[in-house]
Amino acid sequence: MRPPIILESTTTFSSSSSSSSSSSYSSCDRRLNTLARHLIDVNDQNQMASQNISPSPTASSNSVFAHLTRAPEDPILGVTVAYNKDPSPIKLNLGVGAYRTEEGKPLVLDVVRRVEQQLLNDVSRNKEYIPIVGLADFNKLSAKLIFGADSPAIQENRVTTVQGLSGTGSLRVGGEFLAKHYHQRIIYLPQPTWGNHPKIFTLAGLTVKTYRYYAPATRGLDFEGLLEDLGSAPSGSVVLLHACAHNPTGVDPTLEQWEQIRQLIRSKSLLPFFDSAYQGFASGSLDADAQPIRLFVADGGELLAAQSYAKNMGLYGERVGALSIVSKSADVASLVESQLKLVIRPMYSSPPIHGASIVAAILKDRDLFNDWTIELKAMADRIISMRQQLFDALRARGTPGDWSHIIKQIGMFTFTGLNSEQVSFMTKEYHIYLTSDGRISMAGLSTKTVSHLADAIHAAVTRVA
Amino acid sequence: MGSSSVFSVASASLSLHDTNIKKKLNFGTNAFRFNKDGTNTFSNFKSSRRISMAVAVNVSRFEGIPMAPPDPILGVSEAFKADTNAVKLNLGVGAYRTEELQPYVLNVVKKAENLMLERGENKEYLPIEGLAAFNKATAELLLGADNPAIKQQRVATVQGLSGTGSLRLGAALIQRYFPGAKVLISNPTWGNHKNIFNDAGVPWSEYRYYDPKTVGLDFEGMIEDIKSAPEGTFVLLHGCAHNPTGIDPTPQQWEKIADLIQQKNHIPFFDVAYQGFASGSLDEDAASVRLFVARGMEVLVAQSYSKNLGLYAERVGAINVISSSPESATRVKSQLKRLARPMYSNPPVHGARIVANIVGDPVLFGEWKAEMEMMAGRIKTVRQELYDSISSKDKSGKDWSFILKQIGMFSFTGLNKNQSDNMTNKWHIYMTKDGRISLAGLSLAKCEYLADAIIDSYHNVS
Predict the structure, then answer these.
(1) Distance between CA atoms of B455 and B392, rounded to whole angstroms?
(2) Contact state of B123 with A317 under an 8 Å Cβ cutoff
(3) Which one is predicted more confidently, B3 or A413?
């Protein structure tokens, strides 16, 4: 059995069970990763050569799986596992990328519960396979939600939308489609990005590169670096853009910056691929959070967009999302749909009905939709309030440093800027659980626990380098 | 790819004034094809014409994509829906229908869903490997709760997206950890198997299975082909109710297949989509898998709850890997998770909870078994009725008894493509082109009509 290697380390293969992934995928890790992968291939070949003459697998000392190593536990789950083990009454879990109430409990939206009851009471419903591309009304309504009901792209039938397995599944299907049909198989990911992005696109068959995004010095956007890197990308390259509430940094471009990004992307014929996991959840407004995407659609160009309803409808475990591809013409849009089906069918045949039914019911009914927007805004507001409270608490303590990024960053996460030693310290001394890159989930904070966190940060900053 | 090299020469600016040329222009992979007269699109431009890079975006990057053909199985239902004829019959996709030809949601499923809603469970992400209670229940259902493999913790179970998704995870595991290994697939097999292994990047070849002369199993051919495959080949086996033929090996034949697979150090990969649905008995339908596991063999098994619990659209299934030690099972499970994560992160919770609730409650479990026997029973009844109808109407002396010998949802009629087309075009009976009909979509009332159609297609079309 091979010894564990770099490839398996937590920093490179930091996977997550949710969009709230942990460490960033640094270029150093990437280089090591590539090197390690080369080494594995060689080792595997040697291993396989010796496997061919192995005795019957039924001998208990031997297994055809002997050469498989144990993959490390997911870093996020590792955080939660450690949190669960901790007996301290003051422990706090800020790793989780799922919304928590002020009481620290998971939340199922009231409007979702009501719709589920409706669905159960509806005797005309059954569990027959839905189409490969998913529920038709779900798809139409999802496209309207992200692009706007009056979007010319929709009206001109240039939008292909397929139901996907939340954000991850939609990104994967999009990636596989591009690897099969698009001439430029390079995708640029922001540095850092959600830990699962590089893996999704690599397994889809694309080559992953990065563009500069986060500036540690300012804890803000490295806009110059971004423009430079996208500016020097080979023409036609795919560019992954977080539509809003960048994960893990919480740093978003301004609308003016988005406009510059759009111009650059269009002038270089780069292909934008938006990941929209927080529409409505970031600012509280569905339309505001969709502005960057709509900016791109408005210029008539092509793009891909993956949507997730995990956070904004609290449908995490139901795995509901959508992939939309905006093409130049209706004819192309239907070509695209037919080929997307060929990607989906050998992956899971057709998507699950339950979550999509809930979403469709909410989006199509005016009252339910309004009720949803109210609950959505409440979640977003609570998070914004937590940001303010944490910022105020640190200011009150005179914690050294500029903490304004806490209120400038947007969405579920804050990239605190704390280093891994400081993070370990906070976990050990204050029983606060977060990912080693210093990312905290504001969704896991409450008014009662803010001061505890502020104390911990203060201590970490003043006592640990 | 020539197209990208042109665009990297961004300084060249050309602008389009001729809309006809705009249409011909294709900035996808076809950009540099040559026309029949030997010219290339770009060679038609006079130097005075300029194409601006902004306008280049007027042509889609995806224009060169071919239109994909409709799915051969799911496309049948679409065609059926479009047919306005009153006598139409859908024997295409394998979804159970009542005698009234209506979809069927099991009563026990409705009960479970009501319970779940009453309990008000949350919708948090499942672990990557799925719902623990479901994984436990599904392995026990497959192997028997007291199976030594389970007791010894040698079974790695990961919840998957029904049969397809579970097969895909297994295929991805093979591709990553058994590079160069092939999968041997029965000829014929479920239409999606090859696509799954193709997309997973696993090469496959076929073993003989169906004998058109007997409309039965070509056992000799099957054995020969498994024998001649290189050592360490994965052999895809249908646990019961072979799709599309309905022809299963006998228990004695299963023993011989297991002997051979052991000899050749092959790895069996079972697709179990009909446990309980074929014979009506969960245990009986799992006999083939249990036979292999009892010999201490390492086995992959994909399960689906689409048919036996009627959970088609919920996409519930599992990939099980039975290996030789608990330590190995742990490693395998961790690697399956690593494959699932970049595909969909974690599986959907709803269907898994339904299964866990039903299997976990003795009363509900008993009710499930009863409903399953009812469904399997109805299919056996229409088989008999169809056979009686055909054999009384067909005076040619052809032996139609294969209809009774086959098992499960499907019957391989032995009709070829032209004959199947005749079934559709003349009789408005929708089936797949390989001659497969889904008995689950047949009612007693329609048996006579189907019998007439089959007899006509068989004898009058070549």
Answers:
(1) 11
(2) yes
(3) A413
For residue range A382-424, list pLDDT tens digits in order: 999 999 999 999 999 999 999 999 999 999 999 999 999 999 9
| ipTM for the assembly | 0.86
pLDDT greater than 80 at residue A34: no
Compare all CA atoms of chain A with the CA of B195 and give the residue at the minimum distance.
Answer: A346
Does the annotation mark B307 as catalytic?
yes
Q: Do A235 and B351 touch (CB under 8 A)?
A: no
Q: With beta carbons under 8 A apart, name residues in chain B contacting A116.
A: 117
Could you report the per-residue pLDDT of A315-346, keeping only the tens digit for each? 999 999 999 999 999 999 999 999 999 999 99
Whole-angstrom distance, CA of residue A429 vs CA of residue A440: 17
- Rounded to two decimals, what is the model's pTM? 0.87
Q: Name the residue in chain B with its Cα closest to that of A234.
A: B8
What band does B58 get if pLDDT is binned at 50, 70 and 90?
Answer: low
